[in-house]
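Deliverable D5.2: sample structural annotation.
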Amino acid sequence: MSRTIFCTFLQRDAQGQDFQLYPGDVGKRIYNNISKEAWQQWMTKQTMLINEKKLNMMNPDDRKMLEREMVNFLFEGKEVHIEGYTPPEK
């Protein structure tokens, strides 16, 4: 069963997550406000960030940095800056 939410990232109704994908309050916020489509966009950015900055997910500082980028991207409308990557023209 899919659930529809108002995705604050896409600014429209869209298919919500099936379950909470991220722990804690940030995870609740994502579950309630971020659609599957928006989450996929973030996952792409996250992979690029991890690769480019050679982040170690066992390192708490790296995880904190990634969470900050995620919140900025999903809730603050800030683009993720990735060295040497130019987003395609809209």
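Annotation notes: The CA atoms of residues 69 and 80 lie 7 Å apart. The helical segments are 24-33, 36-53, 60-75.
The annotation will be released with the project's public dataset once the embargo ends.
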